[in-house]
């Protein structure tokens, strides 16, 4: 029996979940590979580190806008359409890089990356929101598990994408590698257009544009906690850590890139199994108390690493070991948050709430990225780590305001 025939025989909600997840996986692979291709190719063309960083500026900025507007758009036209629009836009963004090398100016590539950033967040918002519509009401344990698998596999595949980008560049060169990814994603887009439900996630009444801002205090608190959590990660992970590893430990670029890619893959694997670390066997799902406890544990790690670095006490071993512990704890925190937003979101027009939440996520990443470069340049990695610890502590304090429960349906 062919794959398509087997897919057709599955229950509707399982089939739609697999299609959504497959779309997300395909997109994520190209997203990670594209980032590595752009960094390595334009480094080879002689672009400076600042110029290469600028290529991704709009990618991050548009994430804030896209999540906010994309959630409203998904509720009006359906999540199948926003997901398919995201896939199509990524194909266009890839195609923009197929022009002759002399046309690949900073402005042109920034525009392609801006389009890719919009596509990425449309795809992510659609995938996360769609799960809410596919899981029966009250099946919180199943919802948590499905969200964890989707989120964790995405991050693991992004790490795989880093390797894929380097391999494609080495084997085929820049333009052929881009062409291979564009054609593959085009096939995925056609399959998605033909198979995704037309009414997936569409609100019963078309929401007004002013409704993009959440009216739920619970979602506002969770979004604020998410902002500080991701700013805390990126304030030392995005710029400060790679530069520190290269300059202080004398690691070459391939060693740094390979280590961080493996870190992302491991981080994604932990996310997928987060339900088993947070009480699934006892029939429990996370609540505000869980978010507070796990954030409090996480806040200790960067502070401990900062103390070790400032005292020059086994700094390399502590930094690498601490990074692994941080990644594991952060993965659980992130997975819990991803479940909580889908759980808290209203089922009718779910993407409105999810889009607002991921807007806060994107804002946190943007703030963390900007702080990472400036604080590291001015004060060093230890300062970045102390700021990270403080931001996580703020996320923990905000989590006190999240709802708590004693039991939940698994």
Characterise the protein shown here:
The protein is mostly helical and 410 residues long. Helices cover 80% and strands 0% of the residues. It is built from 16 helices and no strands. The chain has helices spanning 3-9, 12-44, 49-55, 57-77, 79-96, 106-134, 140-172, 174-195, 217-237, 240-248, 253-272, 274-277, 288-310, 315-344, 350-379, 381-399. The protein is globular.
Secondary structure: elements and pairs:
Layout: H1 3-9, H2 12-44, H3 49-55, H4 57-77, H5 79-96, H6 106-134, H7 140-172, H8 174-195, H9 217-237, H10 240-248, H11 253-272, H12 274-277, H13 288-310, H14 315-344, H15 350-379, H16 381-399
Helix pairs in contact: 2-5, 2-6, 2-7, 2-8, 3-6, 4-5, 4-6, 4-15, 5-6, 5-8, 6-7, 6-15, 7-8, 7-11, 7-14, 9-14, 9-15, 9-16, 11-14, 13-14, 13-16, 15-16
């Amino acid at each position: 029996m062919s794959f398509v025939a087997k897919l057709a025989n599955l229950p509707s909600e399982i089939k739609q979940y697999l299609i959504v997840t497959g779309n997300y996986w395909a997109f994520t692979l190209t997203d990670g590979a594209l980032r590595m291709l752009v960094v390595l190719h334009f480094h080879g063309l002689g672009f400076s580190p600042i110029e290469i960083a600028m290529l991704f500026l709009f990618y991050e900025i548009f994430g804030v806008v896209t999540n906010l507007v994309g959630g409203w758009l998904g509720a009006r036209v359906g999540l199948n359409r926003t997901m398919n629009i995201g896939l199509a836009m990524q194909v266009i963004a890839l195609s923009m890089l197929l022009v002759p090398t002399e046309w690949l100016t900073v402005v042109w590539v920034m525009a392609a990356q801006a389009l890719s950033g919009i596509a990425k967040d449309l795809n992510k918002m659609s995938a996360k929101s769609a799960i809410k519509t596919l899981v029966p009401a009250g099946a919180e344990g199943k919802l948590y598990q499905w969200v964890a698998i989707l989120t964790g596999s995405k991050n693991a595949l992004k790490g795989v994408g880093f390797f894929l980008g380097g391999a494609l560049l080495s084997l085929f060169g820049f333009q052929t590698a881009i062409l291979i990814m564009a054609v593959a994603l085009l096939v995925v887009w056609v399959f998605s257009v033909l198979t995704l439900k037309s009414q997936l996630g569409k609100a019963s009444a078309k929401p007004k544009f002013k409704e993009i801002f959440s009216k739920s205090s619970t979602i506002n608190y969770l979004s604020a906690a998410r902002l500080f959590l991701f700013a805390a990660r990126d304030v030392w992970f995005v710029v400060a850590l790679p530069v520190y590893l290269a300059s202080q430990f004398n690691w070459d670029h391939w060693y740094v890139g390979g280590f961080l890619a493996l870190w992302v893959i491991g981080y994604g694997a932990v996310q997928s199994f987060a339900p088993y670390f947070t009480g699934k066997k006892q029939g429990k799902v996370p609540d505000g108390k869980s978010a507070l406890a796990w954030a409090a544990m996480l806040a200790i790690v960067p502070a401990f690493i900062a103390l070790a670095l400032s005292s020059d006490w086994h700094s390399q071993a502590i930094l690498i070991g601490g990074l692994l512990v941080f990644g594991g704890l952060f993965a659980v925190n992130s997975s819990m948050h991803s479940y909580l937003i889908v759980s808290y979101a209203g089922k009718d027009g779910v993407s409105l709430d999810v889009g607002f939440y991921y807007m806060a996520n994107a804002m946190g990443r943007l703030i963390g990225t900007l702080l990472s470069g400036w604080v590291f340049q001015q004060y060093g990695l230890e300062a970045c780590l102390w700021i990270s610890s403080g931001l996580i502590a703020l996320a923990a304090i905000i989590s006190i305001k999240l709802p708590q429960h004693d039991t939940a349906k698994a």
